């Protein structure tokens, strides 16, 4: 049985975990497990939004940058932070959504709708980190 990660059990009021997923499905599984370990556990809606956010950011990094160098999740009493690192310095670009479904364009606006904060930060080694924060 895994110990739940109660925020109050830690000297620092933040809990974090990291992985290097090869797919959006792996990233969702990691995020689902992270949310389930938090105490108190996030609401079903917050967990659903976390899974959507992680899935979109990881899928975009894999599609446009070729890899995810790290997926980092952090939580405190008020927020859950998602950081996706990739090897490309090119920031995400908002594109007109393609209603035929063949060229996307829906993900970046969705990230901005779900998150209370979004930032694109320079990464180590020339890549970038896309950071998105959800209210807990």
From TrEMBL:
Keywords: ATP-binding, Kinase, Nucleotide-binding, Serine/threonine-protein kinase, Transferase. Transmembrane segments: none annotated. The keyword Transmembrane does not apply. GO terms for molecular function: ATP binding. The keyword Calcium does not apply. Residues 21-132 form the Histidine kinase/HSP90-like ATPase domain. InterPro entries: Anti-sigma-factor_SerPK, HATPase_C_sf, HATPase_dom. This is ATP-binding protein. It comes from Streptomyces kronopolitis.
